Amino acid sequence: MQDETRHASETSPAQDEKTGRRTPRFRQVPMRLILPNMVTLLALCSGLTAIRMAFEGRWEFAIGAVLVAAVLDALDGRVARLLKGTSRFGAELDSLADFVNFGVTPALMLYIWILNDAGSFGWIAALIFAISGALRLARFNVALDDPDKPEWAAHFFTGVPAPAGALTVLMPIYWEFLGFLPHWPEFAPGVAIYTTVIAFLMISRLPTYSGKKFGTRIRRDLVLPLFLVAVLLVALIVSYPFQMLAVGSALYLVSIPFAWRSHRQFLRTDATVTMDDDGDCADTDLDHLSDRDKHDSV
């Protein structure tokens, strides 16, 4: 008798305290809210698989898994906006997955590959990169909630984004497979310094191109050429992965000064933003804190 009563209470509808209406205890979730999170979880699985491939010494598959995670990370947000399935849960899950895929995974890969030859210095470099990834993602989440961000700020990121940082920090591995960098323990301190530099670029205030507004509207006469370029790009990455990743990483680093100059031009033409502001998020600028927050921060 008690089991029947318990079963009835678990399956019976719950009563809303505010409205007094009885609502089902288990509500149906629209598929449009689930699909973006599934893409995010697939990206997380790919990032974790990269760690396994690194432990097994299968570096081609490890780097390929990180690249797949980056592609899926670029798709999950677009899928959510296309299906109107954005949610706070999805945003938090995406941030946690990005920290693992583009913070922890590249740090462990580099440590397994050569940083362990630098001893504690190599491990410190790996820690700095992983922690910088977490700090960068936290700042990005805060920037999303800023209502005063100018419209042109959507063209830029503040600092190197996590996926780009992960693919760029692995450039020494690309060079080894291309024959430009021998696998000598003497190069481990240099790789550790390079890893630390990329980590600081991730948490820096340097503006970088975001690409969010790129391709939102395509002219009809450019649709077919765009398909051809996309197919060509995928074919080149599949056929020459390390060459394409090495060239892409180098070009991205070269683009940072041009992004900074373009960002300064927007600042000069925007009268609502001062030149010492980054145009990204007022919540991360101490000058915009209230008096109470300034007191608490001290």
Descriptive report:
- The chain has 298 residues and is mainly alpha-helical.
- It has one domain (30-213, 222-280): Four Helix Bundle (Hemerythrin (Met), subunit A), CATH 1.20.120.
- It is 65% helix and 3% strand.
- It has helices spanning 2-11, 31-55, 59-83, 88-113, 120-144, 162-169, 171-177, 188-203, 223-239, 241-269, 291-297; strands spanning 14-15, 22-23, 156-158, 207-209.
- The protein has a two-stranded antiparallel ribbon.
- Helix 2 packs antiparallel against helix 3 (59-83) and helix 6 crosses helix 10 (241-269).
- It is globular and about 50 Å long.
Layout of secondary structure:
Blueprint lengths: L1 H10 L2 E2 L6 E2 L7 H25 L3 H25 L4 H26 L6 H25 L11 E3 L3 H8 L1 H7 L10 H16 L3 E3 L13 H17 L1 H29 L21 H7 L1
Antiparallel strand pairs: 1-2, 3-4
Quickly describe the structure.
It is found in: Membrane. The longest helix has 29 residues, at 241-269.
The domain tally reads 1
- Taking strands numbered 1, 2, ... along the chain, how are they ordered across the largest sheet? 1-2
Query: What fraction of the residues are assigned to beta strands by DSSP?
Result: under 5%
Structural class: mainly alpha
Question: Assembly type of the shown chains?
Answer: single chain
What spatial form do the alpha-carbon principal axes imply? globular
Q: Overall mean pLDDT score?
A: 81
- Write the H/E string, N to C: HEEHHHHEHHHEHHH
Which bin fits the share of residues in helices?
Answer: 55-70%
- Main sheet summary: 2 strands, antiparallel
CATH architecture: Up-down Bundle
User: Can you tell me the CATH class?
Assistant: Mainly Alpha
Alpha-carbon Rg, integer? 23 Å
Q: How many strands?
A: 4
Our count of helices gives: 11
Flag low-confidence runs.
4-14, 275-298
- What distance lies between the first and last C-alpha atoms, to the nearest angstrom? 61 Å
**CATH fold title:** Four Helix Bundle (Hemerythrin (Met), subunit A)
Main location: membrane
Family: Belongs to the CDP-alcohol phosphatidyltransferase class-I family.
Keywords: Lipid biosynthesis, Lipid metabolism, Membrane, Phospholipid biosynthesis, Phospholipid metabolism, Transferase, Transmembrane, Transmembrane helix
Membrane topology: Multi-pass membrane protein
